[in-house]
Amino acid sequence: MLAIKKVIDNNIINSENNIIYLNQGENQLNITLQEEGGLYNNNIFIDVSSLGGEQQQQAEKCSFQEDGTWNCQVMIAVSGQKKGMIVVTSNTKDDLGNNLLSQYTTSAVVDSEKPQIIGIEKSRNHYSRGPLQKVF
C-alpha cells in the first residue's frame, strides 16, 4: 500500500492550515510516504504547474527511515503564480508498480515579497537592572 503521510518544504515559514510557503525559484520538498515494498526507483511525481513550475517533477532520492516510512526529496522551481497547489500525482508508484492510493494535494503560496519594518518601539516591560559592569 503506497500512501502519502505528509509533504513539507525545507523553506517553510508557516505551515498553519496545511499551506506550504515557498520561495520564488528553487525549493526542496520532502515527502513522507508509507510503503512496504520499496521506493528506491524514485517514481514519485510532483505537479507544481499551478505555481509556474513543472507538471511532472520526479523525486531525486527516496530513503527508508527508522520509523518505517520513506522520505523522498524533490527539487521544484516555482515562479509567477502567488497561490496554487502542490500535487503528488496519481502516476506515483512503488518499486513493484503499485500506484498511489489517491492523488495528494496541498495548498501552496509563493512568497516573493521582502519583509517591511512598520515600526520600532521600546518595550513597556523593559526593566533596568542598574549600570552595566565589566566581568573579568
Name a few traits of the molecule.
five-stranded mixed beta sheet; 9 strands; four-stranded antiparallel beta sheet; 136 residues
How do the strands and helices of this protein lay out in sequence?
Elements: E1 3-9, E2 19-23, E3 25-34, E4 45-47, E5 57-58, E6 61-64, E7 70-78, E8 83-88, E9 104-111
Parallel strand pairs: 2-9
Antiparallel strand pairs: 1-3, 3-7, 4-5, 4-8, 6-7, 8-9
Task: Determine Rg (CA atoms, Å).
Answer: 21 Å
Q: Please tally the β strands and state the result.
A: 9
Task: Pick out the low-confidence regions.
Answer: 11-15
Taken in chain order, the helices and strands follow as EEEEEEEEE
Briefly note the structural class of the backbone: mainly beta
Please indicate the percent range of residues in DSSP E strands (runs of 2 or more): 35-45%
Q: What gross morphology would you assign?
A: elongated
Strands in their spatial order, largest beta sheet: 2-9-8-4-5
Mean pLDDT: 81
Helix content: under 10%
What does the main sheet amount to? 5 strands, mixed
Number of helices: 0
Q: What's the end-to-end separation, in Å?
A: 64 Å
